[in-house]
Amino acid sequence: MGTDDAVVIEGLRKDYGTKRALAGLDLTVPAGTVQGLLGPNGAGKTTAVRILATLLRPSAGRALVAGHDVVTEPDAVRHRIGLLGQHAAVDEDLSGRQNLELFGRLHHLGARRAAARAGELLERFALADTGRKPVSAYSGGMRRRLDLAASLIGGDGTDGGAGPQVLFLDEPTTGLDPRGRTEVWSAVRTLVGGGTTVLLTTQYLEEADQLADAIAVIDAGRVVAEGTADELKAKLGTDRIDVVVRDATRLQAAASVVGMAAGAAEVTRDEDRRLLSAPVTDRMAALAETVRALDAAGIEAEDIALRRPTLDEVFLHTTEAREDAA
Ligand code: ATP
Description:
By secondary structure, the chain is of the alpha/beta class. It has eleven helices and 14 strands. The site of adenosine-5'-triphosphate (ATP) has 12 residues, from strand 2 and helix 1.
């Protein structure tokens, strides 16, 4: 491993009885980056995070966090990490400030230090104005921001005892509305700006696309694809040509023309938007041929565009390919 790696996972396996949740997971996360761990329900994301956070012992393989082995040096690991789980344990009846101070005391900060740290974190996560309201009155987004702030209290940190080196975020925006989600994303960006390494598990492709420097797609307990969002799209997805047909009654005819011209076996149709979409291999040839063929058939197009695949398409492609192989 490089000394700049915040997380190193090698051949990690976890069996729950006969159920194999992790089947030889390998992953390296450079310090100061956001690593997305993307996978469907039951892929093993939570299991991996719980092992890295020393809450669960692996059945085989090895994992280092901030240079320390999660099995043989759990205390050293715990001092350097923060964990935001799917359900964080804040007290509903206390205010945000009181919760943070309590967490600070639990992390052995003295009363003054805990109060100062609570103040800093409320400020940093735009909760200063609401710091005295009970948590039960918070919106979903505020709740998650408070969870995030609470997960940052501990750790030896890199900035004078403030905050963990590695932060695990397990589905941090599940159940939030779009606004809450955007707020949490912005809070995570702030953190990373401060040098924290983040391992983010998510089922939302857009979230990984927005936040992660690198993404590992995991399925059935192992990494099935890895790279930046753009690399994954380029490597696994197929470019597409989208055509909006002016006359809805010509959609069917246009679909066969576009299919032939693009050399595509399958053309998807969206009746409401009068939109056809087909995968292409040679972008420019497909574009030229589609324009020519539609013209020859007397079909008018309102819009024709080449586009890169979305991460959703890549994700479906990788996980479906695995199902087909199974
Ligand atoms: P989700 O997004 O639903 O949380 P996940 O990717 O986090 O999914 P895990 O929770 O790590 O997946 O679960 C991986 C597999 O291990 C699943 O098939 C799950 O049913 C199984 N599993 C998890 N915890 C246990 C347990 N305590 N006992 C038995 N099986 C378990």
